[in-house]
């Protein structure tokens, strides 16, 4: 399999003093690939390539942009921080409240009733028939343990009537950090260049 150069174009770089090149390569199977090369020394120091996934009538494809390296670094740092806070909150929550959560469903005999309770608590529940399939395949406890996740944590703690200031604080720290990450992603989109 060999790549063949099918198109080559130069575009103005972000600082507009020089250019970057885009080469389109196509192989024997008609797959194509884009190679981007920065020709500007200043922009090479300050920018990196970042891919975004975009959708067009059901097809998703990767679109490349130049992004300031400092924004990418800040995104990475904040995402790591967010992940650590979520992991910490989940570890604490599981240790103290997972058994209590599983206990809620111990005396509910019908699967349909369990599905009703989950549907009233979380917005991300599957259809009843999909729920039956999941439960049949993995067992009810495994399913309920999987629902004990960060996305569901706030509603779950409310349902369990948890009044634990340490737990609540960890949850909200992680949520605030999530907003921080979303802000940076907005900045990223606002400042992307191609
Ligand atoms: Zn430049």
Tags for this model:
194 residues, alpha+beta, three-stranded antiparallel β-sheet, two-stranded antiparallel sheet, 5 strands, 56% helix, elongated, binds zinc ion
List the strand order in the largest sheet.
1-2-3
Mean pLDDT: 94
Q: Bound small molecules, which ones?
A: zinc ion
Strand content: 15-25%
Structural class: alpha+beta
- The helix count comes to 7
What is the string of SSEs from the N terminus onward?
Answer: EEEHEEHHHHHH
Q: Tell me the number of structural domains.
A: 2
Query: For the terminal residues, how far apart are their CA atoms?
Result: 30 Å
Q: Rg, please?
A: 24 Å
Q: What's the main sheet like?
A: 3 strands, antiparallel
Low-pLDDT runs of 5+ residues are none
Shape: elongated
Number of strands: 5
Q: In which range does the helix fraction lie?
A: 55-70%
Report what the structure shows.
This protein is of the alpha+beta class and about 190 residues long. The protein folds into two domains: about 60 residues, no CATH class; about 120 residues, no CATH class. Helix content is about 55%, strand content about 25%. It contains seven helices and five strands. Strands 1-2-3 form a three-stranded antiparallel sheet. The protein has a two-stranded antiparallel sheet with strand order 4-5. It is elongated, with a radius of gyration of 24 Å. The two termini are about 30 Å apart. About 10% of the residues are buried. Zinc ion binds next to helix 1. The site of zinc ion has 8 residues, from helix 1.
